Amino acid sequence: MAWVESLQRAIDYMEANLLDDISIERVAKEACTSVFHFQRMFMILTDMSVGEYVRRRRLTLAAHELSRTDNKIIDIAYKYGYDTPESFSKAFRKQHGITPRQTRTFTGKMQSYNRLVIQVNVKGAEPMQYEIVEKEAFQVVGMKQEVSCVGGQNHIEIPKMWDEVNAEGTDKSLFQLNNGEVKGVLGVCVDKGNEKPNYIDYWIATAHEGDVPEGYEALEVPASKWAVFEVHGPMPDAMQKVWKQIVSEWFPSSGYQHAGTPDLEVYSEEDPASPDLYSEVWIPVK
Length: 286
Known about the structure:
Pfam families: GyrI-like, HTH_18. This protein has about 290 residues and is α+β, with helices and mostly antiparallel strands.
């Protein structure tokens, strides 16, 4: 339950500081995790980025203030972080579907995003298949790209990276190079931490023993205790479903924490659209 409590503490911090410049580094510190892992877990749980949550909450509170007070629209705009009434009105209309002036005259409906409260629900009707394994450090070879996690940019750039790899046939080359203990082509997320907060190195790679082939780079995955989860079904829905179960069900009840080292998604050569596709999620735990 410590994981749930730390996540709620981070949300409470955001709520207490909605009118200030909120540092994602400070928010992640409240959750006792890195910027990348906090943003990733938050996105998986809520289907929105941290920045989007803050924006929606500010505009919800602004709508409440417009309908309940006589405060000037320009003052409310500045209060909730907008430099001009025009930028405030544009963002307000995008969320609520009406203008600030219409809100003041009670014309039309508003869209309210309420404060998040993390709860653990009784679930478990659908079991999760996983095992705990320990492995020594191993080498992967492939290609990497530095990706920003600001505003969920990683959810745009990483699929584009896979599209390019598949279109060029690089995935087939990686399968041929796979001679390590972990079988398949890997998606590897490497948190850059304090070196460059809000950024990760994302690798498309494979476990490979021996010299690094020309045109590829190498990464050593550190020795770890791994929670290895089975994924059954077509991409990307099956993978996303298991990640949501891991974050919302398994972590809160297992007593494990993410170890902070790279995690892996393991893909086979099967048809990614097949309902019988088998994949895995490897999470380093402590």
